Amino acid sequence: MTGMDYADRFSxxxxxxxxxxxxxxxxxxxxxEVATTFFKPWEGDEGEPWPQWLQxxxxxxxxxxxxxxxxxxxxxxxxxxxxxxxxxxxxxxxRASRNVLLLSEDDFPSMGFVLQQAERLGYVTRFxxxxxxxxxxxxxxxxxxxxxxxxxxxxVQSNTSRMLPVDEVARLAREREVVTIxxxxxxxxxxxxxxxxxxxxxxxxxxxxxxxxxxxxxxxWVNPSIVDECAPLDVGWFSHADPFALRIRxxxxxPGALRFWGGTPSILPAAVATVGIRTLxxxxxxxxxxxxxxxxxxLIDTVDETVLRSPRHPAERGGTVVLHFGALHSAxxxxxxxxxxxxxxxxxxxxxxxxxxxxxxxxxxVLGLLNV
Length: 372
What we know:
By secondary structure, the protein is of the alpha/beta class. Helix content is about 35%, strand content about 15%. It is built from 12 helices and 12 strands. The strands form 3 sheets. The protein has a 7-stranded mixed sheet, sandwiched between helices. It has a 3-stranded antiparallel sheet with strand order 9-12-11, covered by helices on one side. α8 links the parallel β6 and β7. α2 packs antiparallel against α9 (about 270-285), α4 runs parallel beside α5 (about 110-115) and α10 (about 285-300) runs parallel beside α12. The longest helix has 19 residues, at about 50-70. It starts with a helix and ends with a helix.
């Protein structure tokens, strides 16, 4: 099946939508399904809706487990990646002579903001310069020094679409006793991920982008080998081993990943996101990836080498193609906008992200606009 064969499973909207790196298009049946899982229990006459609402969280975690080839018990709902990262860093015990938080200057700024705040806990933030390619294992080998406590690995960079060999970097970090946190915000839903094969310590992600799950539904995966070492500071009654014990002087961490949960959970975002995850998983992330690479390659083959800001080789690239047209950039951007191409542009270039609902016909229109 082609992208057009799957397009009718998503709300189309106006124009050519290439913004899936920001917000994915919603599945067509999301309102119907959410009406059943969220609004019906709320509007019903069966009493308190919480028993049915908590089933939504179970379904959300089960959908994530299927997507990542993992177990639902290892996932904990979160509101966003920044909050998840903050919780993880504060939960880890201090380690003598290891106080460096390592990340790249190309990582999403919000991640850097969080880690810099962790300096009040005694950490020091260290950046891999943007001039050094983070898809090169030798770069990580130089920077994963003996004083490194935690390394943030961004699977796909938002500003270049450069993809990190997470399995190799995580293996090197484990050999050097460095805790790893993997950010999959720009990869989950467009790149197949076998989370167990990475053997990272933590994985954080969001459903708003390629998973077409809307905002507010992020997640945290915790490696069972490290969960017992974690003592989160940001907790609530759903972080408790028995949330309904309700004895204010007696707190016991949940034995698994849910110790990172917190207070009263947000149900609606999880209900929406579950529809997106199931839709993409049913289609198959491998199918999504093949289609994405096919359309992305057409863009890449059309432009001059000087225009491309993303890796040319598919194995080094995520789902987005980043282009900057130099002196002609503004002219190309205006042509895109006039033709109702939905994209965004930053100082580093224009980002175009073909998803499973985009067609060859749409890409051909975009390619025609590149002849300025």
